[in-house]
Amino acid sequence: MILVNGVFSQKRAPMVNHKGEVQSLGKKSEKCYSYYMNNIESAKEFATRKFAEVNVENHFLEVYGFLKEDFKVNDENILVAGLLHDVLEDTNTTDEEMSEKFGQDVLNLVLEVSHVKNWKDPTRPEMTKQDLMSEYYEHIREIPGRAKLIKIADFTSHMGNFIKIYQKNEQHLYPKFVNNDKYITQIQNFLNSCEDSLAKEKLWKLTVELEQKNRLSAFNMLD
Q1: Which residues are catalytic?
Q2: Is residue 218 scored above 90 in pLDDT?
Q3: What is the pTM of this model?
């Protein structure tokens, strides 16, 4: 599957050598590619169905697109986990169900980037949402690099959507913008724990752009 004019296409991207010549995959490579794409398509179908069951819209395809197209990730389990990164948080999917269908490694990656459902921990009822959020942001600074890539793609999607809201001058319609500065700081603290990469650089630039838009918006409100 490739991204064509911003739309996912079923066409397969051609394989090319260092001279730019189109190459045949060969039977063994074709078989591996088929298995790879079946797993990706299965994860897309699974996520689509699970979110539909709870009537929730989700950005999992955009997160997958950032991982695959922008960050050039070719680790299949990272891509599958990117598609499923919110499934445990926002649907009734169990750990066992995910592990059985996609394997323990995918489950582990999803668990690393997931927070407790609805920001409520039944085993620790004394913990407020703010307590749990602070704990979560500390947690993601310690997760493995493969999981951090998924979280970077997740944050990149959110940052991009926030910037689009500013471009439409609709920030006043979204109460969560009140806490944008804290959110940006948390993301930048997370990025400081990540190794240098194209993904890290892209997200950092978005946080800086959003900071600038926050300041400009606050200044305009004073006029």
Answers
A1: 89-90
A2: no
A3: 0.81
